Amino acid sequence: MENTANQIKIRAALITIIASFVVLTLKTWAYYLSGSTALFSDALETVINVITAFVGLFVVRYVSQPKDADHPYGHGKAEYFSSAFEGGLILFAALTIAYESISTFLNPSALRDVDQGLFFTFLATVVNLTVGLYLKKVGKEKKSIALQASGEHVMSDVVTTVGVFAGLIIVRWTGWLWMDAAIAFAISVHLFFVSWKILRTSISGLTDEIDNESLHSFAEALERHRLAGVIDVHQVRSIRSGSFHHIDAHIVIPEFWDIASAHIFLDQFEDHVVETYPYDAEIAFHLDPCQKKFCSRCALEKCPVRAKPFKSLKKFEMNDLVKGPQYDL
């Protein structure tokens, strides 16, 4: 199954490269025919798509390698570098487009064949929309940060092109040449925010910042497979390496269990949790004996050391999982 997932990711990256070249050709021709600064800006963003498509293919192939002695958590961290690189290129494009738009605004020039430019821009949008939706779908299903970042970028390109298309129609009808430069500047602002979003996600993954989505999924998996004897889970930490997550957590179990029994019990519990957790994962549990502090939260029957009657279980919730132990209700 892992090999199949990797093949799907690689195929998606190859499709992105082919589509990026097609879109770049269409947009470059549209700019050549019309002389529009807005279309130049749109084409420049697609140049970024082509570069990042090649980088994405390399990264997807690299992270598909299995774990080894030098990379015990796999090669998934490379995906965050890939998306950070893409975010940086988009930021560069935003600054370049802003400069060109201001120059055009100060020194406007007449447009040429706007109708032909609009036609090829429309074709490019159809291709981009199809590829963008496909990348977002595959990236989400296969937990690929690189493909998700590429999908976000391509979809932002679609939004940009639709804006350019609408703006050029206004220019054609009104003859307002300054509108062409204004559209280009709006594109630069839009790309700035897209680059920030991608860079923010990359930095979060590289620094292993707490991810609320995966933490919520972990809490649901714990709750779904909860067994009598799993009294509390706390101090949850995770290392995210692409689609692979290494999770460290403290788990409270009855203090009278022997090591052998606890080991068998936790192996089974971990297997069930990992099956439900939506990422490829491993869990390293640190065992904490209950020491009678959790009696009111422990549903274990026939406990020989119970000091207080059982009241109710405390539901596993993501905000509590990252904290220290919380004892009686």
Biggest sheet, in brief?
A: 3 strands, mixed
Radius of gyration: 26 Å
User: Spatial order of the strands in the main sheet?
Assistant: 1-2-3
Q: Assign the CATH class of the largest domain.
A: Mainly Alpha
Distance between the termini: 43 Å
Please, what is the average pLDDT?
Answer: 85
CATH architectural category of the largest domain: Up-down Bundle
Specify the helix fraction band: 55-70%
Which band does the percent of strand residues land in? 5-15%
Regarding quaternary structure, how should these chains be classified?
A: single chain
Structural class: mainly alpha
Instruction: Domain count, please report it.
Output: 2
Low-pLDDT runs of 5+ residues are none
Could you tell me the CATH topology label of the largest domain. Alpha-lytic protease prodomain-like
Tell me the CATH superfamily of the largest domain: Cation efflux protein transmembrane domain
What is the overall shape?
elongated
Characterization of the model:
The chain is mainly alpha-helical. It has 2 domains: 2-206, Alpha-lytic protease prodomain-like, CATH 1.20.1510.10; 212-321, Cation efflux protein, cytoplasmic domain (Alpha-Beta Plaits), CATH 3.30.70. It contains 9 helices and 3 strands. It has helices at 2-34, 37-63, 78-106, 114-141, 145-174, 178-206, 212-224, 259-276, 318-321; strands at 232-241, 244-253, 280-289. Strands 1-2-3 form a 3-stranded mixed sheet, with helices on one face. Helix 3 runs antiparallel to helix 6 (178-206) and helix 7 crosses helix 8 (259-276). The longest helix has 33 residues, at 2-34. The radius of gyration is 26 Å and the shape is elongated. The mean pLDDT is 85.
